[in-house]
Specification:
CATH architecture: Alpha-Beta Complex
Structural class: alpha/beta
Helix content: 25-40%
CATH topology: Spore Coat Polysaccharide Biosynthesis Protein SpsA, Chain A
Number of helices: 7
CATH superfamily: Spore Coat Polysaccharide Biosynthesis Protein SpsA, Chain A
Shape: globular
Number of strands: 9
Length: about 190
């Protein structure tokens, strides 16, 4: 079992959010509170090892008093670029990543990962229908592999996982934990519920 003290939690908030009129999704309000703030409130009772990956409105994210890391690669290169940048910046051996736009996320997800880590360096959430590739636990030992993949112009997160020895962590009954909000219509629906 991996101890939480050996883990950094990286929140991915660096995307363009093209399907939400290019809003900075981490700062979008859900039920009166920004996505990023909702996640921090879930995580901070368990650990202070939080990193935020953002590429816009850096000063707004810095108000939460956690390190804010911009992608090393410019022009919004996708979640792997954010994962790479946070992994490089992490002071811990492992990094757990999650997207900023998951309204039903619970600490239970991270707990399940921690309990199931054994000797691999890469773990990915799976809801029994499909993998949830941005919910991942990754060792710093994967830094070179990830850098090489990105430097070769590759961006597909699933393609990188398939090139590396990995294990799925299954969440059959908790699929809702991985719901995310990609459109203004979805946001409206969640705000009305």
């Amino acid at each position: 079992m991996l101890e939480v003290d050996n883990l950094s939690i990286g929140i991915l908030a660096g995307g363009k959010a093209t399907r939400m009129n290019n809003q900075d999704k981490g700062l979008v309000n859900l039920k009166g509170k920004p996505f990023i703030e909702r996640l921090i409130e879930i995580i901070k009772p368990h650990t202070s090892n939080i990193i935020i990956n953002a590429n816009r409105n850096i000063s707004e994210y810095e108000k939460y008093n956690y390190p804010v890391i911009k992608d090393e690669m410019l022009n919004f290169q996708g979640p792997l670029s954010g994962i790479y940048t946070m992994l490089k910046a992490s002071e811990n051996k492992y990094l757990f990543t999650l997207p900023c736009d998951c309204p039903n996320f619970r600490w239970e997800v991270i707990e399940t990962f921690l309990k199931n880590v054994n000797k691999k360096d890469l773990y990915i959430a799976h809801d029994h229908d499909r993998s949830q590739p941005v919910f991942t636990l990754i060792s710093k030992s994967k830094l070179n592999s990830l850098r090489n993949f990105l430097e070769n112009g590759e961006r597909k997160i699933d393609a990188w996982y398939q090139q590396n020895d990995h294990e799925y962590i299954y969440f059959e009954k908790e699929k809702r934990f991985f719901d995310n909000i990609n459109t203004l219509e979805q946001l409206k629906k969640y705000n009305e519920d």
